[in-house]
Amino acid sequence: MHRKDPRVAAAAAVLWLLVGLLAVRQVAVVLRRPPGERLADLETWTGATGVLHIAGSLYDPGRFTGTPFAGLVLKPLTVSAEQALGVVWTFGSLLLVVLLGHVVVRALPAPVSRRTAFLAAPVAITLLMVSLPVRNTLYLGQTSVLPVLLVLIACFAARGERLPGVLTGVAAALQPAVLLFAVLFWLTGRRRAAVSGGVTFAVCTALAWVVMPRDSWAYWVHHLAGAGLGERPDGLANQSLHGALLRFGLQGPAEIAVFLALAAVVVILGLRRAARYARDGQLLLAVAVTGCVAVAVSPTAWQHQLLWVLLAVVGRVGTRASDRLVWPAVVVLVLTLPGKALLPNVGVILPVRDNMLLVAALGAACAVPFLSRTSPHWHEPVPTDHAKPVPARYAWVPLLPFWRRVLSRPNLLLELLLIRVVYSAYAKVRLAATAGRSTAEEHGRQIHAAEQWLHIDIEHWANHTVVGLPWLRDFFDYYYSTFHFIVPLVILGVLYARRPSDYRWARSTIGFATVLALAGFWFYPLAPPRLMPGLGYIDTIHGVQDLDSPDFGALTAVTNQYAAMPSLHFGWSLWCGVVIVLLAPKAWMKALGLLHPLFTVSAIVATGNHWVLDAVGGAVVVAAGFGLTYVLAGPRRLQAATGTGTGSGTGVAERPGREGVDGVDTPVPEAAGSKA
């Protein structure tokens, strides 16, 4: 594609605008905070009472975690004005991030298309800025971007052998685990650079010993290269093998022995893989793998030091085009979102959730099967099986160019992460979307008055009738609390396993409906009947509420009690009913599917959790979800072209299929003279 293609130019402009907005936001976040609270680590080191001002060892207060050489470099900053230092440090860190992004783009393995070269820089800088390591670095005022940048410059910009080694040695003097890059130089035949890096590291460390002997002894001997400095080493912030073993309960000599054994295995496997990728022409991937090894085997790997994991996004994984984006998506999600947003709070997966960054680093270092450039699938992955365009689309609807009907089953890992991330975002927005009790109660009175005018205000009668029948009350309480999540997940699971193309269509409809519902929660907070004072409703699930107490809505701190319009309890149940009616093969299944929205609307009204009009709102957003999916992806059925003489309208996706090589239903071709 030509470099000046208007669509590419517009995309690049939008991305650069996003980069600028992120930079402005980060500067504003720093400058809005009081002087004593901004750049917490930098203030701890260089402030008026910082450790670099204190006579004696840097490590006595336990607040400085860098190497003695880092302390030697930072010590001149103590004479700087506090206000100016914070501003200059923030802008300087942002410039380092921008420079880092440009170096990464230049290091992409050739050949690189013009479109990729044009868009890669803003995309790389955007990903860097939103990543947890960079956000943490800018928030705290850390120096962790500098060692990464020095190594990348040494590998991709510096010429000769001596200068790359010197830059790597300086980076290792700031973060000792970076010395593993000297080993990478050695394994790839750059032995002069390896020796130069080792010598530079030794010189910088010796200089710090001469100037600060007590600090150097405390760091290298007493704290074993910084292990145990700063936060607790068994805290979740320490994403290294050492931290994980401590969290698993190992202590003392046994933990040290296991750590050293595992670290040796990771170093051997990881560096051999890195050398192989470097010889394969994927030097950026080799650098990322080596950095991931350094993260895993370092005694402490705090969040701001994990930028190496993000660089592993450049590795290509998967022979099929449909799977090619799985690894980049996993890396970006792990490096931009907290673990609790990616995995639920379930006991059996808590070890994975608490060590997500370490798992990603270990995977990149030792396990992920990155493709070789000699692989036939490097440039040409197995194409995705798409349906042909459907003539029933509205011609005036501007379709997204990448939205094509896919017949194959999506990647399960990516799908689970997508569902979890979307639900986490939904829960967070729902919790934040509240305008206060008075507004919600005023909206409640509006809804109640509208229902009285429409003569559909049956909530009070239904609520008190159910309260008088304990067995019915228990049934509706259980149904309201349980089936809201179970039934949609079961339907999605069955469709994923049995009808993958319909799964994508169904998943999109419920996703659109949920996003649209958030607008209702945000703009129209509504008190449900059970939280309306003076109307006499009984909360059958949560018990009696003291509406005269200002703290009666304690549950609002956990889930927004005023997110009632529209009712997603009914909306999701209606979606379930519609999907079952459309897709179930048996009449009795269709009839059974209709019972779920019927029971749900009865439960939400009888328990006092929703008004009747809330259910109407739920139906509206679900209808809108189906409509959006239709105009973007066409009708669910892949219709036969006109002129076939059949007039059946039954499409390819609905015909009996045979099991394909990928384990998905491969459609049987249409009869001659027709097309999907």
Structure description:
The protein is mostly helical. Strands 1-2 form a two-stranded antiparallel ribbon. The chain is globular, with a radius of gyration of 30 Å.
Sketch the topology as an H/E string, one letter per element. Answer: HHHHHHHHHHHHHHHHHHHHHHHHHHHEE
**Secondary-structure class:** mainly alpha
Count the helices. How many? 27
Number of strands: 2
User: Helicity level, as a percent range?
Assistant: 55-70%
Low-pLDDT segments, ≥5 res: 554-558, 639-676
- Rg result: 30 Å
Mean pLDDT, nearest integer?
80
Shape: globular
Please report the distance between the alpha carbons of the first and last residues.
30 Å
Short key terms for the protein model shown above:
676 residues, mainly alpha, two-stranded antiparallel ribbon, 2 strands, 59% helix, globular
